[in-house]
Amino acid sequence: CLLSKPVRIHIKSTDMTIHTYPDIAREEQLETPDYPPEIDDACAAIKDACDGWGTDEDKLIKILGSKTPYERYLINRRWGELRSKTLRKRIGEEFRDNDLGKLIQFLAQPLEEAECEMIRLACRGAGTNESLLYPIICGRSNEDMQVLKKTYFEKYEKDIAIALDGELSGDFEKLIFYSLQAAEEEFNEEYHTEEKADEDADAFYEAGQGSWGTDEGKMFKILVNSPPEYLEMVDAKYSEKYGYTLWKAMEKELTGYAEKAAVFIFGMKIRPAETVAKLIKSTCAGIGTDELELSCAVVRYQRLLPEVMQAHEELFDGKTLEERIESETRGKYERLLLEIVRVRENFDPSDFASMIQ
């Protein structure tokens, strides 16, 4: 792997919600990068694995599963310069549309494009897969949301809000569309003061438990627009005045996927690693594992996995994320998931720093 220095840092609430895309995805003017030799080697190896009478699935699992999102971004871009067919299309021709096939196709394209496919999958067929949809739309940085919306339009020639219109309803729909606005404020200590936090704690209470009917719009606006550091201040004021956290208040006042999405947004702002660990665990709850949701979570949050791994062990009685994958999945699909998870040892420290700037 190109990046080999292990790192461990603690990701906590900060002035803005963390990024999940590699920095290169947010660069407006992309210059042709100076590709390391390993990128050309990876492209050649992928071609070799796909050529001939049979696909070397094991080789492709090793190549694509062992790379960071940034490395895969470079591979995808370099492949497009060398070949007429996109890497996503080439890989799609080699795999069936099963759990392994979907997962490796997510890896064969930039993360923002993979997320667009995930959204389409969530809206495909009769009924919307809300549990797949809300982690993609909610709890992300303004910059990443703008990239996602732009990519969706370029890919499908349709605004993402229009695509989701008619798929959702009620408070859940309202929260999704608040999130799409990418309106999180940048923390400003002169504006986000203790006094304002006190006012917003009261406003949150009055919108919920302090009134006969819940004003979800007011609650959602405070939740979505508040930067993490400030939301933590509001939470402290709320707990001090009303005896429990904003988290607990949302559980009391909201129901269904609106509750799940609101709690998820709060978690991604305040404790992202713990929130992602719980999300991954939820894909394995009940009778059988939801492999699609598990794949989406692991691919989307790969940059967070070092901290997610630690949080998972702390939350779930010492059980590692690798042990969960091994107990819930089988075969080549299991091997590819484990390859992705184990890339955590090869992250560059600057990659983490960019997530919380």
Structural write-up:
- The chain is mostly helical and 357 residues long.
- 63% of the residues lie in helices and 0% in strands.
- The chain contains 21 helices and no strands.
- α10 packs parallel to α15.
- It starts with 36 loop residues before the first helix and ends with a helix.
Q: How many helical elements?
A: 21
Task: Report the count of strand segments.
Answer: 0
Q: Tell me, rounded to a whole number, the average pLDDT.
A: 91
The ordered string of helix (H) and strand (E) elements is HHHHHHHHHHHHHHHHHHHHH
Q: State which percent range the strand residues make up.
A: under 5%
Low-pLDDT segments, ≥5 res: 1-10, 345-357
Q: What is the helix content?
A: 55-70%
**Can you tell me the overall shape?**
globular
Q: Which structural class is indicated by helix and strand composition? A: mainly alpha
Largest sheet: none
Distance from N terminus to C terminus (CA atoms, Å) equals: 25 Å
Calculate Rg over CA atoms: 21 Å
Q: Could you give the topology of this structure?
A:
Layout lengths: L36 H14 L6 H9 L3 H14 L4 H8 L4 H9 L3 H12 L7 H8 L4 H15 L3 H5 L5 H11 L13 H14 L8 H10 L2 H15 L3 H8 L2 H15 L1 H11 L8 H10 L4 H11 L5 H8 L2 H12 L6 H7 L2
Helix pairs in contact: 1-2, 1-3, 2-20, 4-5, 5-17, 5-20, 6-7, 6-8, 7-15, 7-17, 10-12, 10-15, 11-12, 11-13, 14-15, 15-16, 16-18, 19-20
Describe the structure using short key phrases.
single chain, 357 residues, mainly alpha, 63% helix, 0% strand, disordered N terminus, disordered C terminus
